[in-house]
Write a structure and sequence with these properties.
The chain is mainly beta. It has no helices and eleven strands. The radius of gyration is 13 Å and the shape is globular.
C-alpha cells in the first residue's frame, strides 16, 4: 500500500508560482499524476508523468504553465505551477494513474490529505 503525502500549497496572487510535492512510501514504480478538486467540480486530472519521467501529459487548461517532474531517488513527484490563475484554486492530490482511452484515471482509491492552493485575483 503506497502512502502519499502532498505539501507545498498556499495562498498566492494571480500570476504567482507554487511548487507542490508528493512524497510516496512503499512501492513507487508507477505512473503518477496530480488531480485537483474544487467546490464546484469533481476531482479532475491535472498532470501525469511516466516512471522514468520521460513522458508527461497535462490537461489543456494548465499546458504551458504547469510542469510535472519526479525524483525517484526521493520517491517524490513535483508539480511546478507558474502563472497561476484564480481558477487553479483547489485541493491538489497525487495518485497512481492509469490511462483509460483518452482519460487519466486514479489507480488507487486511497488518497492523501491533499494540499490547498488558493489563488487570489
Amino acid at each position: 500500500q503506497v502512502q502519499l503525502v502532498e505539501s507545498g500549497g498556499g495562498l498566492v496572487q494571480a500570476g504567482g508560482s507554487l511548487r507542490l510535492s508528493c512524497a510516496a512510501s512503499g512501492r513507487t514504480d508507477y505512473v503518477m499524476g496530480w488531480f485537483r478538486q474544487t467546490l464546484e467540480k469533481e476531482r479532475e486530472f491535472v498532470a501525469a508523468i511516466s516512471w522514468a519521467g520521460g513522458t508527461t501529459d497535462y490537461t489543456d487548461s494548465v499546458k504551458g504553465r504547469f510542469t510535472i517532474s519526479r525524483d525517484n531517488a526521493k520517491n517524490t513527484v513535483y508539480l511546478q505551477m507558474n502563472s497561476l490563475k484564480p481558477e487553479d484554486t483547489g485541493v491538489y492530490y497525487c495518485n497512481r494513474v492509469i490511462r483509460y482511452g483518452s482519460r487519466w484515471l486514479p489507480q488507487s482509491g486511497s488518497w492523501g490529505q491533499g494540499t490547498q492552493v488558493t489563488v487570489s485575483s
